[in-house]
């Protein structure tokens, strides 16, 4: 990590804007950096923008099928991932853009190590729906 990134990471942790997503076995899957609003479990804003860092490939279980609670958009900055909508498998590579319309459910099948995305969601129509993950945990 560069010194600049380490400095920004510390600021995000201290301000409560760095979250981690853990699966039902408490494996860290994704680090989420909240760019606009701090978000706690059950705290829902009209919209938010995040940077996601996929750190593990634990998204392979069926239990990770989820809906974001509103239309969502992602742009892959680095790396890539594979997602599934019902029986459709789609590869998302660097610089690809994706829109997931609410209430469509999908799941991440696999992710390249250290994949980074910009992710936006909103306006929210309901809570984030995830079948068996433990959700976001604040560092």
What does it look like?
- The protein is mostly beta strands.
- It has a single domain (3-133), classed as Jelly Rolls (Sandwich).
- 9% of the residues lie in helices and 45% in strands.
- The protein has 1 helix and 12 strands.
- It has one helix at residues 3-14, and strands at residues 18-22, 28-34, 48-54, 66-67, 72-78, 80-85, 88-93, 97-100, 107-111, 115-121, 129-130, 135-138.
- The chain has a 7-stranded antiparallel sheet.
- A hairpin with a 2-residue loop joins strand 6 (80-85) and strand 7.
- The longest helix is centred in the N-terminal third of the chain and has 12 residues, at 3-14.
- The protein is globular.
- The chain starts with a helix and ends with a strand.
- The model is unreliable at 131-135 (pLDDT under 50).
Topology:
Elements: H1 3-14, E1 18-22, E2 28-34, E3 48-54, E4 66-67, E5 72-78, E6 80-85, E7 88-93, E8 97-100, E9 107-111, E10 115-121, E11 129-130, E12 135-138
Antiparallel strand pairs: 1-2, 1-12, 2-3, 3-10, 4-11, 5-8, 5-10, 6-7, 6-9
- The name CATH uses for the topology is Jelly Rolls
**Biggest sheet, spatial arrangement of strands:** 8-5-10-3-2-1-12
Task: Return the string of H and E elements.
Answer: HEEEEEEEEEEEE
CATH superfamily: Jelly Rolls
* Helix/strand class: mainly beta
CATH class: Mainly Beta
Q: Please tally the β strands and state the result.
A: 12
Query: Major beta sheet, specifics?
Result: 7 strands, antiparallel
User: Can you name the CATH architecture?
Assistant: Sandwich
Strand content: 35-45%
